[in-house]
Amino acid sequence: MEVINTSGRRKTSVARIYLTPGQGNITINGKDIKQYFPNEVLQTIVNQPFQTLDSIGKYDVKANLKGGGVSGQAEALRLAISKALVVENAETKSALRKEGFITRDPRMVERKKFGKRKARRSFQFSKR
Asked: Sorted alphabetically, which InterPro entries does this protein's record hold (predicted)?
């Protein structure tokens, strides 16, 4: 197996990854996953595709993350890893789809409208 290159997106985050066989090292923007995501919940989100397929420690991931916040970046990385695992072995697609890791989450922030405080929130109404 050679290097598999895929990308994943979530909100405004974009993850580009390179998946190779290895010892399970995950490097994000030149840092280790424990440095980049100190929160264990986010580390768990990133490792969910490997846990589903019982392949923890079999692949090395080198990722470039850009845009958005930490949770969006973690979920974009999860999508990219899932897509790379499907490219590597097509039989894993049903297991990953069952967990919901293959589908891109389309929810985005709604834009602010003119005459409003936020997207839907109006200014406080004063009767007198």
From this structure: Ribosomal_Su5_D2-typ_SF, Ribosomal_uS9, Ribosomal_uS9_bac/plastid, Ribosomal_uS9_CS, Ribsml_uS5_D2-typ_fold_subgr
Nearest to 65 by CA among 45, 85, 88: 45
Overall size of the chain counted in residues: 128
Q: What does the pLDDT look like over 41-60, one tens digit per residue?
A: 999 999 999 999 998 989 99
Phi-psi category of residue 68: left, alpha or beta, with phi > 0 → left and psi -120 to 50 → alpha = left
Tokens (6 digits) for 47? 């490792």
CATH number for the domain formed by residue range(s) 4-99: 3.30.230.10
Contact 21, 58 (CB under 8 A): yes
CA distance 96 to 82: 7
Q: Which tens digit of pLDDT belongs to each residue from 67-92?
A: 999 999 999 999 999 999 999 999 99
